[in-house]
Amino acid sequence: MKKLFTLLIPVLLAVLGATVWAAQDLVIVNGEHWVDSSHEQKRAYLFGIGNVLEIEQAMAGDDYESMRGRSIVPVLLEGLAGTPIDKIVTQLDKFYADHADQIKRPVIEVLYLEMALPNL
């Protein structure tokens, strides 16, 4: 047992180190990242956000309504419902082109405040 524990410590330290290293690479995507991305990268980003939103909605189950006012999930899901991904890409492209002074503004914030919230 002691030998197994001794062998696991380096593995656990390596996993912990890799996790910390990976976390340092996480960034909040803003307009600078957005305008430097390809169309496919932009679509992938939005598909990823969509997947997370749908997972959050599914996990909330019967408690979904209680998320209102406490979470961005209902606003994004309902405010962007039925909007094709390519249209969202175009709208975000236009926003950052028209608001160069807001290039550091996070994409998720623009999606929420400028695109989803006004549709509710």
Topology:
Blueprint: H1 2-24, H2 31-35, H3 39-60, H4 73-79, H5 85-98, H6 107-116
Helix pairs in contact: 3-4, 3-5, 4-6, 5-6
How would you portray this structure in words?
The chain has about 120 residues and is mainly alpha-helical. The protein has one domain. The protein contains 6 helices and no strands. It is globular, with a radius of gyration of 19 Å.
Query: What count of helical segments does DSSP give?
Result: 6
Decide which structural class fits the backbone. mainly alpha
Q: Report the strand count.
A: 0
Main sheet summary: none
Mean pLDDT across all amino acids: 85
- Report, as a whole number of angstroms, the end-to-end distance: 59 Å
| Rg computed from alpha carbons, rounded to a whole number of angstroms | 19 Å
Estimate the strand proportion.
under 5%
The helix-strand sequence is HHHHHH
Total count of domains: 1
Quaternary structure type:
single chain
Per the principal axes of the C-alpha atoms, what is the gross shape?
globular
Low-confidence stretches: 4-8, 11-16
* Helix residue percentage: 55-70%
